[in-house]
Design goal:
The protein has helices at residues 2-16, 132-139, 143-150, 202-208, 248-261, 268-279; strands at residues 26-30, 36-43, 52-56, 61-63, 75-77, 82-86, 93-98, 103-108, 126-128, 154-156, 165-170, 176-182, 185-190, 222-225, 228-231, 303-310, 315-320, 327-330, 342-345. The protein contains six helices and 19 strands. The longest helix has 15 residues, at 2-16. It has one domain (2-201, 263-345): 4-Layer Sandwich (Penicillin V Acylase, Chain A).
Length: 360
């Protein structure tokens, strides 16, 4: 087991260490009937994360990794089946949905988070931050149950050199909370906005939004400066001044504005499509995260995958940097009582299919 942990640690350190390569953007949309769709990206410019999907049946037992090099932390058995998208290896689910309609996701949170120190005497109630999503999806059906469960555990990092993370949890009715562990204490925020990025803390991002109180949809057709009449150059002038860089504060502002100005659609299917279109604006080209002279990895995009989740109909949709075709897990096709535990790459083949147009 020690040998396995060393491999895990190397993989996770490659995933979590360099801050300039970390980025996640999350949004939440609603249909005309108030049905929620959550969506998010995951970025990493360092290398291919070899991301996987993991299907976990009811009754499947797991055990948390601990910082002392063993997989001997808290044991947890899935009360509910779920589908998760994982990085590096099957256990590290960073986004998922369970069969009772609870969605959970992990987002980078460097420099601002601080977990409690690992205490080996409490390892039976200790869960690693990278396995918290898996544990919650298998254990809880709503936000209140999430909060109650988390009060009973100790959340630690597998490797203290890595970045801390924060989480969002969304129940079927749309209630969403963000969890951050700051100063070794858990802080829950009701996320009625539905947006989440990375550092600083969630409450800071909400305050920062007040700097953009002037933003609005549509054009500003006319203005006047002294005796000079002004007209806009084109559509979208109501958003002039919106921040365009890739930092978490700027992405949070753009996500909030794009989400709030999007038309409310009739169905979850249309809303899922809309979520992918909005998140197109947050795709990060690989090269921009490296200084001149640094070697740029041979991957198509820093945005490795994008996922949208229909909580009401229990469907997870995703696309990847290798294949922009949207694929779907429909829980109607999965019997979580009988299905076998399984984990496979998100891309069976890493290439982008191109359909030729037949000229008549």
């Amino acid at each position: 087991m020690k040998r396995m942990f060393l491999w895990v640690s190397v993989g996770i350190m490659a995933f979590l260490m360099p801050q300039q390569m970390q980025a996640c953007t999350g949004i939440t949309l609603y249909t005309q009937d108030g049905l929620p769709v959550t969506a998010r990206t995951i970025e990493w410019a360092g290398n291919d994360l070899e991301s996987r999907y993991t299907i976990v049946p009811r009754g499947f037992r797991q055990r948390s990794f601990t910082p002392d090099g063993q997989q001997d932390g808290m044991s947890f058995t899935a009360k509910y089946g779920y589908v998760g998208l994982a990085v590096q290896q099957a256990e590290f689910v960073v986004e998922g949905l369970n069969e009772v309609g609870l969605a959970a996701g992990l987002f980078y949170f460097p420099q601002y988070g601080e977990y409690e120190a690992y205490d080996a005497s409490r390892k039976e109630s200790t869960v690693s931050d990278l396995q918290l999503v898996s544990w919650i999806l298998g254990s809880c059906r709503n936000v209140d149950e999430v909060k109650a469960a988390l009060r009973k555990v100790h959340v630690v990092t597998i490797d203290p050199r890595g970045s801390t993370v924060h989480w969002r949890f969304t129940e079927e009715g749309g209630r969403q909370v963000v969890l951050e562990i700051i100063g070794k204490e858990m802080r829950f925020y009701e996320n009625t906005l539905g947006v989440l990025t990375n550092s600083p803390s969630f409450d800071w991002h909400l305050t920062h939004l007040n700097n953009y109180v002037n933003m609005k949809a549509g054009p500003v057709l006319r203005g006047r400066v002294g005796r000079l009449d002004l007209t806009s150059f084109g559509g979208g002038s109501g958003l002039y001044g919106i921040p365009g860089d890739m930092t978490p504060p700027s992405r949070f502002v753009r996500a909030a504005i794009f989400q709030s100005t999007a038309p409310v659609l009739a169905t979850t299917e249309k809303t899922v499509e809309q979520a992918f279109h909005i998140l197109n604006n947050f795709d990060i080209p690989t090269g921009i995260q490296f200084a001149e002279g640094e070697e740029v990895p041979d991957i198509p995009s820093a945005t490795q995958w994008t996922v949208a989740t229909d909580l009401s109909h229990r469907r997870i949709y995703y696309r990847t940097m290798h294949n922009a075709t949207i694929r779907c897990f429909d829980f109607a096709d999965i019997n979580f009582r009988k299905v076998k535990y399984q984990s496979y790459p998100l891309d069976a083949e890493k290439y982008q299919p191109v359909e030729k147009v037949r000229v008549r």
